[in-house]
Amino acid sequence: MKPIKWSGDNFLEAFDSGYKFSEFELSELAYENSIETTYGENERWVRPVTTIIEFNGRYFQIDWCEGLTEIQPNEFFD
Asked: Which bin fits 16, alpha (ψ -120 to 50), beta or left (φ > 0)?
């Protein structure tokens, strides 16, 4: 299955209809559409991250954890 390339209209339609974004989709949205990213205090293996994205004048927050070692993956929550 080919991943969806999110744009303003199709993202907003999916979000407004209650679509559940996968961890992969959330990571792509955060990496490709970030307008602001803030980092929390380092924990043992991860640090909390908040990424703000914007589509058509609407703003959304994606909270996730950045792995702090080469073994810890980044974690995105639905």
From this structure: alpha
